[in-house]
């Protein structure tokens, strides 16, 4: 039953103002355009006139209070039947945050995948802060990149600067990170020009596509990729799978070749811990992981996702098979949680179900290796006794980050992988 | 080395400062200094001038209130510049083309746009950029309206539009921009029918006029473009009107462009974007200008003639303000701005890409 007068934006970029003095008190009668309050903002003191006539019901903000733009200053009973103005923004905010939630999984995935790239981005980010706040931060020696904003539209306030001052040491780390990362900044983007625009159509990239593009580009920028190719005869593996396929099916589990490869990769990572590592650019440290989370790239009609099998080392073949199916379904339904896509050790990119042989997969940052798996094809194969046979040949392509992994190490790892897949019984020994 | 000087630069410089007195009809004490010019106005004319200035000040006051109530977008205060703005625009005809800058909203309305449209313009609404009047929307880029005016003037000449000119405004700061010279030079070169008005209100936001240029008068900026120019007392509406009308007559006779510098003052801040004039000028500087106030000056003349009273003025102000309150409510009721509205107005004939975008947004908007 009353009008809530909210602090308007009195100057360009104004985020907050201070109540200098009230010119009315509770119970006063005010007419439209009567002065209500003096507001001190960054640039000047402004007298705010009342937009309505009525009785002052409540002074919500007190003299000396700092009020954000959009916050209620005063409630005036103007006899209006309703306060739609009051409810509308709240409803709007809700819907906005819901929108964000919908977009979030896709975006977060990529941010995770492109973590080092995100560090580059932060160096170029624009910070929203009033000139006085910037000056204040400079005087206090606080780097705005380390301050988390609490103001409207992500504005940094003086209070935020104060809050960040205690964390000044970590700020140094962050800026060092930024400058290191900057050296890897890619070339400037050029527009695509066309001589025949009428024969072409343009379409905005979806959020997920943009995120994939960014992640791929940054991975190639950051990590010098090398890909080693190999092929392995997998008749024994096929036989093993055939043997247990029905048993799995009885438990509603679809047993593919992937769980074998997951298990084999776990064994490889145990033997060669460099494959289960990440590089911290800011400190030039190698981070070795003592967990084995194997990611499986999952193609959906709405983008590429990489959920990982957590602690694959402590899971049985059937359990892994089941989890692969569940993750892939969740990816299709757009229901993958962030947790499922973060903290990976290594990734498998399997195009074999569609066809194909060797290819050069791009590393899923911040991991250091990715295994590309092609289809199993009938090909001539020379066995250990020197006889030519028709072999079941599986094509493997192992891309690795040459900053950490050298060619010989990669070949040794690939040799082990080869052995394990050729003779799956070995998985019992090594896995 | 010849030591006898063939040129006396100091004398040339001094000569530059040798300016004619700005044109005035009523002086600061409301004394008639040009009787012939004064006698050309009827009592009704004088009352009409007064009403227009009272209207402009009421518009300023009410609009600034709306602004502080959070009901406006960008707006430039006009208090103090009523004679300069109303005097010049009233001398124009409806068929003339106005190229306003952002402080020229009162002239835009006077030339035929509605207050509601002006308020929508301030809010960035698409409907605030289309008027039945012959006018562009107020130009935000300082000095750029001068270039547009040169182009429109050339169009008038090309189409042989009879008894028609383009007229445009900028401030003292605008004359320091390259655009304003380019516009004048182009119009001069092609003898386009354009009236360039410089409202010298003393400040380019916070930079005082004297720090902006070494030129003794801004009217001299037209000289290099071969354009006749004149300084006029911008607080004297009779002088502003008379000079603007004479300029218009001269231009429509096929003599090419003219430039007028009105010497005026802005009492308030540069804009509602929040500058505090107290930080760049003192109260003592402002006070003499209040004494030259254009409303006081004409009010005295009218009161002496028994044509005006405080009651009459108060009543008018009340009426005007009430109508502005209706206007802002009408602006509130305007249909929601759609992205497709903006796209459709970008090019007269949309590009293939834009056509696709328009279709895409229209489909979204109809949901």
UniProtKB/TrEMBL annotation, chain A:
Residues 128-165 form the Peripheral subunit-binding (PSBD) domain. It is an enzyme of class 2 (transferase). The keyword NADP does not apply. It comes from the Bacteria. Residues 2-77 form the Lipoyl-binding domain. Residues 89-104, 190-205 have a biased composition (Basic and acidic residues). Residues 174-186 have a biased composition (Low complexity). InterPro entries: 2-oxoA_DH_lipoyl-BS (IPR003016), 2-oxoacid_DH_actylTfrase (IPR001078), 2-oxoacid_DH_E2_comp (IPR050743), Biotin_lipoyl (IPR000089), CAT-like_dom_sf (IPR023213), E3-bd_dom_sf (IPR036625), PSBD (IPR004167), Single_hybrid_motif (IPR011053). The keyword rRNA-binding does not apply. One of its GO terms (molecular function) is lipoic acid binding. PANTHER family: DIHYDROLIPOAMIDE ACETYLTRANSFERASE COMPONENT OF PYRUVATE DEHYDROGENASE COMPLEX (PTHR43178), LIPOAMIDE ACYLTRANSFERASE COMPONENT OF BRANCHED-CHAIN ALPHA-KETO ACID DEHYDROGENASE COMPLEX, MITOCHONDRIAL (PTHR43178:SF5). Belongs to the 2-oxoacid dehydrogenase family. This is Dihydrolipoamide acetyltransferase component of pyruvate dehydrogenase complex.
From TrEMBL, chain B:
It holds the Pfam family E1_dh. Residues 50-339 form the Dehydrogenase E1 component domain. Its cofactor is thiamine diphosphate. Keywords: Oxidoreductase, Thiamine pyrophosphate. GO terms for biological process: branched-chain amino acid catabolic process. Belongs to the BCKDHA family. This is 2-oxoisovalerate dehydrogenase subunit alpha.
